[in-house]
Amino acid sequence: MAGLYIGSTTGYSGKNMIVMGLGLKLQKDGFNVGYMKPVGAMPIEVNGKLGDEDAVFVQDVLGIGEDPELVSPVVVTQDFKVKAFSGNMEGLLDRIVESYKTLAESKDVTLVAGSGSMYSGKYCNTDAISVIKQLGIKAIIIDRFQKELKYDYLMVMKEQLGDQLLGVILNDIPPHFMDEVDQLLGPALESKGVKILGVIPHDPLMGAIKVGDLADRLGGKIISAHNKSERVVETFLIGTMQVENFMTHFRKKKNSAIIVGGDRSDVQLVALEGDCPCLVLTGNLYPNDIILTRSEVLETPIIMVREDTFTVAKKMDDILSRHKLRDAIKIKQGAELVADHIDFQHIKKELGLK
pTM score, two decimals? Predict the structure, then answer.
């Protein structure tokens, strides 16, 4: 009865992707896989029972149908926080242990998904370190590249978890940083006893979002080419510069939404003719009739939003870095990335899976 905790240095680091990738691969290899997410941060009601939205989704992908209250024995609601901060929450770790024992009883391996960072939940003693030690299981920690890697954090985790740290996965590594990982950071971590289980390269599709979802998240509305709201946005470009300069940047960035003031018809027209997935017009300004007509003819949706260009760009950056893994195409791609770049043989050996 093996158990494996999957945590991360920060939230939105790819835990669901790794859990699903590991789970699907282990199932393919013939193992009976269990799953739990001890602390749920996204409350949802399922058949009258309180569960976690991510946990329900991951169970569905893995074809597991356990009781949501068992899978997520601790769900953080506003009422929960009030009680916890007042010191009125006891026995949460015991509840997690009991649920784990029930779920893991007939499984070859149980994947235990973390929530937030390794320290999230410290206020009520349900942080990752406490859970891992209480369950007596191995752990994998994901570190997603965000301007740099958190190598100090990973070394501290090795000190705190010792042999329970099975290894780390470095996620979303851009091409320009691969050499540094291979030649400098990787060997430095390994010298401190931190096993690198895999380095997953940056994949634009994993951070992509559909135009319709983007409009909802930005609080805007699609005003043309509604039938193309399924088009995919991978990144964005701000159209505040002169047209000539804009064209130079635009050619280099495929599948980029163009964020531009509603009064900049010159940039809007260039973006439309260049086949961008959508225009995001700021300042609550309607485009002129020529732009609207070209948008319909070229089937490029236009999203209109109230805020200024800078605010929208900041929002967009946040959305693309924190967008949830929900589309079937992303799940398939994520599972392939995990299967291709992670040392499964080492993981299976450490967990005693044959």
Answer: 0.83
